[in-house]
Amino acid sequence: MDNRIRKILILFRGRILGASLGITFALMLIIFGVWQTVFILVCGVIGYYLGARFDSDEDFRGFLERVLPPVD
Fold first, then answer.
1. What is the pTM of this model?
2. Burial 28-42 (b: 16+ CB within 10 A, else e)
């Protein structure tokens, strides 16, 4: 039984992920409203971007210097 469920999850992982994200987004809209949901999503995207940069072994100081250039 466990092996059949695992095969189904692997076979339909895109559909399951898409449906889960859609339901989550709809619930956030209902609970928080449009602008708070947009804010949460923007914060999530920024966090994902910073996490991806951190995972790529980029020096944090170098990242900050690239994003926020020094003022002359």
1. 0.61
2. beeeeeeeebeeeee
